[in-house]
Amino acid sequence: MAENKILTSRRTLIAGSAATGLLAAIPSGAAAQGRLGLSSILGQATDNALDKLAQPGAFYNDEAIRIGLPIVGDLGGRAGGLLGSILGENSTAGVLGGITRSINDAAGVAAGEAKPIFRDAIDDLSFSDAPGIIREDDGGTQYLRQSSNDRLHERLEPLVDSALEELGVYSTFDGLAGQHSFIRDAGLNRQSINRSVTDQGLDGIFAYIGSEERNFRENPLRGLGSLLGN
After folding, report:
1. Hey, which end of the chain has fewer CB within 10 Å, N or C?
2. Could you tell me if residue 5 is inside a domain?
């Protein structure tokens, strides 16, 4: 009788262990739902952010994300002061202001064309660590940036390049470089301008995506935030 009880206990233990292993191998409904919800929210947050930033003047009018003149090279911050003193001393609407506005407008144009790029990046995310990500109010945004920032930068650069060309930013800098050697010495050329604008533009885009994600989580009626248990 005792042997039967021991055998039964062993069988129960083995069966329980097997069931536990099987459950661990299969994502729970909540976890799978969380991954789906996170992907959906991040997609909607990205679309909303890019729509807002594509509006005329969006980058320039928001001081928190406004893109500044690219300053690189050994002159560092001094180049900004020199450029400002030479170009902007007459009025804030002078050449300096015009260049800054054009640079921000270029970022807005690029943002308006970037939806497919961000959607592709989101679709490629595994969300394997979604249970940890969903605890942060902008966890999806952080994860997207950590996982895809370099690829997004690489794909956004051509859009920024085209916009800078079309809006005359490059030709303006080329003309200024011909007149002022410090601009050339500071390394301000098409490549560095594009890189700087793309870097700053991505900062602004991710700031807006994070804000949109937080809004979705705080107000599930706006989207799929309820899938994350918020």
Report:
1. N
2. no
Q: Are 111 and 53 in contact (CB under 8 A)?
A: yes
Structure tokens at 129: 């660590």
Structure token pair of residue 44? 């909607």
Question: How many CB atoms are located within 10 Å of the residue 221 CB?
Answer: 7
φ/ψ of 71, rounded to 5, equals: -125, 115
As to burial, measured by CB atoms within 10 angstroms (0-12 exposed, 13-18 middle, 19+ buried), residue 17 is: exposed
Q: What is the DSSP letter of 26?
A: S
Q: Flag whether 134 is in a domain.
A: yes
Strand residues in the chain grouped as ranges (E) = none
Give the total number of structural domains in the chain: 1
Hey, what are 152's tokens? Answer: 């997004």
- Domain ranges, residue 123: 30-228
Question: Nearest CA to 141 among 45, 66, 76?
Answer: 45
pLDDT digits (tens, 9 = 90+) for 68-91: 877 544 333 333 444 544 554 443
Asked if 72 and 186 touch (Cβ cutoff 8 Å), the reply is: yes
Residue 153 included in any domain: yes
Residue 43 included in any domain? yes
Convert the pLDDT of each residue in 117-134 to its tens digit: 999 999 888 877 666 677
Q: How far apart are CA 184 and CA 198, in angstroms?
A: 20
Q: Specify whether the CB–CB gap between 224 and 40 falls below 8 A.
A: yes
Instruction: For the beta carbon of residue 222, count every other beta carbon within 10 angstroms.
Output: 14
Residue 132: its pLDDT value, please? Answer: 66
Question: Can you give the pTM of this predicted structure?
Answer: 0.74
CB 23 within 8 A of CB 199: no
